[in-house]
Write a structure and sequence with these properties.
By secondary structure, this protein is of the alpha+beta class. The chain folds into 2 domains: 158 residues, Sandwich (Jelly Rolls), CATH 2.60.120; 103 residues, Homeodomain-like (Arc Repressor Mutant, subunit A, Orthogonal Bundle). The chain is built from 11 helices and 10 strands. The strands form 2 sheets. The chain has a 6-stranded antiparallel sheet with strand order 1-2-9-4-7-10, sandwiched between helices. Strand 5 and strand 6 form a beta hairpin. Helix 1 packs antiparallel against helix 4 and helix 2 runs antiparallel to helix 3. The radius of gyration is 19 Å and the shape is globular. 41% of the residues are buried.
Length: 300
């Protein structure tokens, strides 16, 4: 999979303050091929998102699958696999859901959407995704689009919340613990939350989409990947997270998540994700959605 010459730009806009405990950010991506060939890249493993392609066409999927046409309004559950995609020309508005956002806005266990990309109309949610797609198509500019997204999501938050404050706090505490590099084992994570390992397993599948063991693997992996994204000239060996035994240990995780070696990954151009990660660092301070820390509760 090679990347054609192309231009890509991503703008990040923070959601309304009352929505920030639940959403990562609104991000608006423009892709334009310079030579008529598809511009290609890979999405990194991350939390769930809904995406509205309001201009152009895109192909996508998960690594190991054939690229396919993506519905204009599509939903991607939490992922443990990279997501290859391609476009000649596209304008896409995306909204990332943190685990608290999944609990508040998505009325399904997260493992039902784990490593799944499908039409947004199939999601059980009080959020009017169809209205958001219309807002993406008809807004005059990105600021107007973000404001209309705010209004739709605030309506769901105020009138059809799916969890109470106590549940929200439990989800946030679990997410905070997952983000802690000192939590290196399932037993440590369960102990931090005062849960049995069996209880954490059930909770993790329902809220995060994956087993605790896989999530801890994904977290150490994205911490390492983030070092490379911050400094593309750095060596993998120097970037390794402290929870890796050695380079071979990391290489096995890389093949698990990307189905290729780190060397093969670096041999490809990353015109879309490279530009987006730089813009994300400038706007939010970190290059990957999976590293965004959960915000404090605002009592809905």
């Amino acid at each position: 999979m090679t990347g054609a010459d192309g231009l890509s730009h991503t703008r990040f806009i923070a959601p309304h303050p009352r929505l920030q405990p639940y959403l990562s950010v609104y991000y608006f991506t423009a892709i334009d091929s310079l030579d008529g060939e598809p511009v290609r890249d890979w999405m990194n493993p991350e939390w769930a998102s809904v995406r509205f392609r309001y201009s152009g066409d895109t192909l996508g999927g998960l690594v190991g699958q054939n690229l396919r046409d993506i519905p204009p309004a599509h939903f991607v559950g939490p992922t443990s696999l990279a997501g290859p995609f391609a476009a000649r020309h596209a304008r896409i508005a995306s909204i990332g859901f943190l685990p608290t956002g999944w609990s508040m806005f998505i009325d399904e266990p997260a493992d039902l959407w784990a490593d799944r990309l499908d039409d947004a109309s199939l999601v059980k949610t009080p959020v009017a995704f169809a209205d958001m797609m219309q807002a993406a198509v008809s807004s005059q500019n990105l600021d107007e689009m973000a404001a209309r997204f705010d209004a739709i999501l605030l309506d769901a938050l105020d009138n059809r919340p799916l969890i109470d404050a106590a549940t929200e706090q439990r989800v946030r505490a679990a997410h905070v613990a997952l983000m802690d590099p000192e939590i290196a084992s399932v037993a440590q994570w369960a102990g931090r939350l005062q849960l049995s390992i069996a209880q954490l397993q059930r909770f993790s599948l329902r809220i995060f989409g994956f087993s605790p063991k896989l999530l801890l693997r994904r977290q150490r992996f994205v911490r390492t990947l983030a070092v490379i994204m911050r400094d593309p000239e750095s060596n993998w060996s120097d970037a390794l997270d402290a929870n890796y035994y050695d380079q071979a240990h990391f290489n096995r995780d890389f093949r698990q998540f990307f189905k290729m070696s780190p060397r093969e990954y670096r041999a490809h151009a990353h015109p879309i994700i490279g530009a987006a990660s730089k813009a994300r660092m400038a706007a939010l301070g970190d290059p990957l959605q999976a590293l965004q820390k959960p915000g404090a509760s605002n009592g809905h």
